[in-house]
Amino acid sequence: MDQAPEETICAIATPPGEGGVGIVRISGAGALQIAEKVVRLRSGLPLASVPSHTLHLADISATGLSGSSSPSAVAAPLDEGLVVYMAAPRSYTAEDVVELHCHGSALVLARVCAACIAAGARLARAGEFTKRAFLNGRIDLSQAEAVLDTIRAKSDEGLRLAQQQLRGDLGREVERLRARLLTLLAHVEAGIDFADESIEFVGRDELLRSLKETTASIEAMLTTCRSGRVLREGARVVIVGRPNVGKSSLLNRLLQEERAIVTSIPGTTRDVIEEGTVLDGVPVTLVDTAGLRETTDEVEQQGIQRAKAAQEEADIILQVLDAAEVAADRTPELPEDAVAGRRLVLLNKMDLFGEERGRRLAEVLRHRTNAPVIPVSAVTGVGLDDVKQGIRSLLSPGSLESRESVVVTNVRHQAALQQAASSLQQAYASIEARIAPECVAVDLRGAADALGEITGAITSTEVLERIFSEFCIGK
Ligand code: GDP
Ligand code: ZN
């Protein structure tokens, strides 16, 4: 029977360029029927007769296409490769899927894909395979987004979080909270009379307690956002300090390559220099700034302005001091309390001191600031591992260390959680003020729907379009 084969999609699933293998993927009710027209198994069996999820050597050609003048004659073979049929619903899209594993040649793949289209498939749109997995209920929306995060992950930590979300951990937690809200909503809608304490005292109190708990859970998830974003997208680590204390040298050392210009003339690093790297599993952008000091030189003034701006957007500030200056008690700027939680003080040029004297010097400094003080040397590399660990621990306080907890990395999820939290606060206030249950119900519904947007239980075409348009064709 013909099952709307025009809704069967196909695309090259592997990245462009040469490779060992390249895969054309077909998905939809007509996948088998279309594949039968372009592959011929070496075993001679029809593709439809082989067990699902098994690989078979095949000739791939356009021979079977109606329109070829003589089917039996020599239609030039496109490739030979392996074919696998994955019967619905046990496939990526939860539909019938056929994959043609060809040689990794852009030309071969383009031809095979064109043959599939000639056989009745339609070229898939960006993200359409994943979108179908979502629409068919195999994954929730947060998992679909995690597919993209997984593909794009640039660090071990980012990958770990993407895979956690891909497993559905976030979606499950959000659905749990949403189910609780819907139960509460049912109670409220059933008509709890908040004004009549003699009858409904328990109901009202329980409602408040349950609301408080749910709000606390949502707020706990929200607190993971900053660390989550940083782990996924990377942290801005800004190096500040007076001219000549060794900022550029430390940057170079951390990058392990010569990028910034190192000189012994004060004030030569005039521009902010940025460089991305991965420290201890965390992607970071290291930013070197011009020396923060009073100056009349116009070019350097501009550099200093930019350095101040860079410091304001920093996730972490590495404040570099020259140990010799500290020893001579010409100690420059020490951390202000406002940024203490995101600042490390690096006592540089430790190689010029004896170990014992260096340690005492660091101790003295520690009494004068509540930021961690790390003795380092850009010349010998001493202390740089401590710097990396220091950055890591400032970025992932407490809860993140527990590998079990759900971490929110996506700004769309963050916005939805904020919306839910504020609706719940509103509902709470309304109950306390004994405002009509109808108003409370509206806020509870609002909160539940906000959570539903995360998993896609509640969706708009606009949101779906935005999410899936970020994917590549073939995913
Ligand atoms: P910036 O102006 O803060 O960027 O300082 P630079 O990185 O340009 O370094 C200024 C001078 O200090 C250069 O001559 C470096 O070789 C020297 N220097 C930097 N770090 C160290 C260190 O750890 N030990 C010693 N002995 N010299 C250093
Ligand atoms: Zn410099």
TrEMBL record:
Cellular location(s): Cytoplasm
EC number(s) per entry: 3.6.-.-
Gene Ontology terms for molecular function: GTP binding; GTPase activity; metal ion binding
UniProt keyword Nucleotidyltransferase present: no
InterPro entries on file: G_TrmE (IPR031168), GTP-bd (IPR006073), GTP-bd_TrmE_N (IPR018948), GTPase_MnmE (IPR004520), MnmE_dom2 (IPR027368), MnmE_helical (IPR025867), P-loop_NTPase (IPR027417), Small_GTP-bd (IPR005225)
Keywords: Cytoplasm, GTP-binding, Hydrolase, Magnesium, Metal-binding, Nucleotide-binding, Potassium, tRNA processing
Name listed for the protein in its UniProt record: tRNA modification GTPase MnmE
Source organism of the structure: Nitrospira moscoviensis
Lineage: Bacteria, Pseudomonadati, Nitrospirota, Nitrospiria, Nitrospirales
